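Before going further, learn to read the protein records used in this course. The integers have meaning only within a learned vocabulary of local backbone shapes. To see the layout at work, look at the sequence and tokens printed below.
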Amino acid sequence: MERQSSALLNSLSADVQFTVIGSDGLDELPTAVRTIKMGLPRRPAVARIVWFYFRSARHVKRLRGEFDLVHSCGAVSRTNVDLSTVHLCHAAVGPGSRASLTGWRKINSALARWMGLVSERRQYRTDRVRRLIAVSESVQKQLARYYPRVERAVVANGVDVQHFATPKRRARSNGEALRAVMVTGDFSLKGVDLAMEALVNAPSVTLKVVGRGALQQYRNRVEELGIADRVTFFGELSDVRPVYSDSDVVICVSNYESFGLYLVEAALAGCAVVSTAVGVAPQLIGNNDGGLIVEHDARSLAGALVQLQLDPEFVHRCATYSAAAAREFSLDAMREAYLAHYREMADG
């Protein structure tokens, strides 16, 4: 969400005078953006949520006379706001998404989710926020279910289309291994374990995993499963484009995804999409035109991967469709949508 907030501020700074109250990433904003930096504890997550919730409200109250609109973006603040961008609907996530966590990580996650729920329920009311902005159609449906009285709209996250789009690539020939990629900051939440289990029953598929996670634990697991020669862990990368370009399929087997920025990026780079029905995946996949929707289990994923491995032409057609669908999620589209909301609400 910090990445998307930064992209929004950079794209709108020529049209809107911003004062940003935040913590990380403020140094990357345009010089024209006024910033108020709050020191937040690095860990645990619940401490960061609580600290921002109360301290940010003090800054807003002190400076409210200087603003035409107050926009909370991703984080909930204990103050009245005009717009609140919702990257994650805590009420919809449920405890099952973190079922594999243990020890302190499980306790910390449970506390953070509890605080997220408490702050959401207090703030997502008509006397607290004028309009909720969902980052995808799926989040909008969740908000409609849990907070039906508050006005809602959808402004999809935006991607630098030209940065990720690649020229048309050679279709994979029969017999070649299907090259899959996953990008995640949380191996457990995104279902990397399910993907590894799926590879056991999809012997002509390779997997590249990019992002943070318990690397040694997962390396040990692929050794146990006998698939170590087909799985590569890259860790965090500053530029994921070469990995996307060297892949045929992007995988997501999360049981919750608010948007799925990496799915759009990979689709732009020429990947078909194999995903659970979360976030933006249904829009990229369509009626099996851009890939395949799978269940949240290894068996379903394995079946989809085998099907794609056996039909290179289908993969090529899916990649063409998903790339075209992904172009709708541009930074320009996001910028214009927010600018329209700002003008309407400031005039109203």
